[in-house]
Write a structure and sequence with these properties.
- The complex is a heterodimer.
- Helix content of chain A is 0%, strand content 50%.
- In chain A, the strands form 2 sheets. In chain A, strands 2, 4, 5, 6, 9, 10 and 11 form a 7-stranded mixed beta sheet that branches. In chain A, strands 1-3-8-7 form a 4-stranded antiparallel beta sheet, with no helix packed on it.
- In chain A, a hairpin with a 6-residue loop joins strand 7 and strand 8.
- By secondary structure, chain A is mostly beta strands.
- Chain B has no helices and 11 strands.
- Chain B is globular.
- The mean pLDDT of chain B is 91.
- Classes of the chains: A mainly beta, B mainly beta.
């Protein structure tokens, strides 16, 4: 039973390029959450998606960042025209339902470490 | 809005000594509370959680945490530290009406031989 799969594990982009981060949730999980981790800052919530729907994007920067979770395929976090400040670890998590119903918590992937040069 | 404060970004304890990692939360409704552990270059792994019921929660690897509503705290403890416990630990909160989990800034635990 594969866990949450994120790829690539490491991604290097030059300033101005696009970064695409992929997340395949655990089998049977229909809810996906994206977090960004910066040194000494912990994990910051970015966006919560269900299949074909964005439920909460209150943590997403207003520009250059977008996320989707199509009916088929993985969830994608897309960063356009990357800048050095986008360098961080991006984590995806999934849950089988709205976790609050059972206090499930999340299952996390191993993250994608984005470096902008 | 909910928030989490972890006291001490770095904590060092000797092998075999008590581990105590502090966490205080803010929530306007009864919260769900979590502790996660992160080993280097890995994702986060759930250690334990409090939802309802018994306020002393036992988790994996010998860790436990106690929910104290009057103190708005959820401190993580382990009676005897092991070298393999060296990692970063995150306390997290979720209000039962809100699906997203809010994380603290983390505490890096160092184990001294």
């Amino acid at each position: 039973n594969a866990g949450v799969m994120q790829n690539p594990r490491h991604l290097v982009r030059r300033r101005g390029q696009e970064a695409r981060l992929r997340c395949s949730p655990m089998k049977g999980h229909s809810h996906v959450y994206w977090y960004r981790q910066l040194p000494e800052e912990g994990l910051k919530f970015m966006v919560y998606l269900q299949k074909e729907n964005i439920i909460d994007e209150s943590g997403m920067p207003k520009e250059r960042f977008s996320a989707e979770f199509p009916k088929e395929g993985p969830s994608i976090l897309r960063i356009q025209q990357v800048v050095r400040g986008d360098s961080a670890a991006y984590f995806c998590a999934s849950s089988p339902m709205t976790h609050r119903r059972v206090g499930y918590g999340y299952t996390f992937g191993s993250g994608t470490r984005l470096t902008v040069v | 809005a909910q928030s989490v404060t972890q006291l001490g970004s770095h904590v060092s304890v000797s092998e075999g000594a008590l581990v105590l990692l502090r966490c205080n939360y803010s929530s306007s409704v009864p919260p769900y509370l979590f502790w996660y552990v992160q080993y280097p270059n890995q994702g986060l792994q759930l250690l334990l959680k409090y939802t309802t019921g018994a306020t002393l929660v036992k988790g994996i690897n010998g860790f436990e945490a106690e929910f104290k509503k009057s103190e708005t705290s959820f401190h993580l403890t382990k009676p005897s530290a092991h070298m393999s416990d060296a990692a970063e630990y995150f306390c997290a909160v979720s209000e039962n009406r809100d699906d997203k989990i809010i994380f603290g800034k983390g505490t890096r635990l160092h184990i001294l031989p």
